[in-house]
C-alpha cells in the first residue's frame, strides 16, 4: 500500500447522535444478538485514498449496490468480543487487541484492507461511551461487540475489492446459560469437515459459517445439541460447533491429568478464549498434577479413555459461553459418556476456568487483559 493512503485515524471521528433513542430491554429479556444499541461505527475505505472519515451514527440499514462483491464472492469477515461493566461501573473490553489482530489476519487473507488496531479500538471505545446505557451491569451480562468488514465495490467480475467498509454494531447480551451451566450432547460429524489444511478455517470469514449449519441441523434431528467436528483418516477432533474443544484425560498409572486441545495448524479458529484458558492453566495449575497439551486427539482416543474411566471432562470454549460443558458424544451409534461432577452439569476444571475468566472480565481480578474505557 502506498504511503499516501490515509490510515485509520480515530482523531477524525465524527459523531451524529440518534434523535430517537431506544430503551434497553430488562436484563432477563435479552436474547443473544437480537437487539442493538442506538449507534454504530462505520468507516469506508477506498483503494485510491485509504481509510476515509470514520463516523458514529444512528444504528440503521446499510445501502449498497446489489452487485457489491460482499454479496457474490463473500468478501466478509467479522469478530466477536465483549465489554463488561465492573462493580464501579467502569467499562472493560476483554483482550480486544487479540480480536483486532485476528481481524487484520482475516482481512489480509481475503484481500481486504488491514488497519491500525489501536485506532479502531479507540473508536469502539467512543461507541461504548455513547451507548453506555446499553451495557448491562449485572454479573453474567455484557455487551457483545461485532466488528465486521465487507468488500463494497460494485461489479460482478471476481477481483480485489477497491472499496471496503468496517462497521461495528453492539448487542446487550445475557449469560449463555441463564440458570447455570447446562452440559450438552454432541454428535461427532465424520461425513463433512469444517476446515482443511491450506484452507481458511483459522480465519473468521463469514464464508466458513454458512456451510456448518446443515451438519448441526442433522445432529439436532438425531437428538444432539451440537456437532463435534472431526478431520482426516485419524478422525482428529478439531472444534465443537463454533467453539474450540478441550478434553481432560487422566493417566492410569500416575493419576496425572492432561488438558488437551487441538494445535493451531491452520484448520482451527485461533480462539481468544482458547488462548486465555491455555495461559491460565499453564500459570495456575500445578505442574506436578497437570500437563497442558496442544496436540491432536482423535475421537477414538476419547472413546478409549472413556471406556477405561480415564476421561475426566470435556468442554467447548468461546466468547459467547466462555466454557460449555459436554456430557456425551454420539459416534457411530455409540454413546461416549463424559463425566460431570456428581449432581452437577459441569466438570471441576470447566467450573474453575469459568470462575477465573469471569473474575478477569469483570475486573474483580485486575489484569492487562482488561482494557478499561476511560
Ligand atoms: C469456529 C469457531 N471456533 C472457535 C471460536 C472461539 O473463539 P473465541 O474464543 O475467540 O470467541 C469461535 C468464536 O469466535 C468460532 O467461530
From TrEMBL:
Coiled-coil residue windows: none
CDD domains hit by this protein: BCAT_beta_family
Swiss-Prot/TrEMBL catalytic activity: L-isoleucine + 2-oxoglutarate = (S)-3-methyl-2-oxopentanoate + L-glutamate; a 2-oxocarboxylate + L-methionine = 4-methylsulfanyl-2-oxobutanoate + an L-alpha-amino acid; L-valine + 2-oxoglutarate = 3-methyl-2-oxobutanoate + L-glutamate; L-leucine + 2-oxoglutarate = 4-methyl-2-oxopentanoate + L-glutamate
Modified residues (N6-(pyridoxal phosphate)lysine): 204
GO cellular component: mitochondrion
Pathway note: Amino-acid biosynthesis; L-isoleucine biosynthesis; L-isoleucine from 2-oxobutanoate: step 4/4; Amino-acid biosynthesis; L-valine biosynthesis; L-valine from pyruvate: step 4/4; Amino-acid biosynthesis; L-leucine biosynthesis; L-leucine from 3-methyl-2-oxobutanoate: step 4/4; Amino-acid biosynthesis; L-methionine biosynthesis via salvage pathway; L-methionine from S-methyl-5-thio-alpha-D-ribose 1-phosphate: step 6/6
Cofactor: pyridoxal 5'-phosphate
GO BP term, example: L-leucine biosynthetic process
Family designation: Belongs to the class-IV pyridoxal-phosphate-dependent aminotransferase family.
Protein's UniProt name: Branched-chain-amino-acid aminotransferase
Highest classification ranks of the organism: Eukaryota, Fungi, Dikarya, Ascomycota, Saccharomycotina
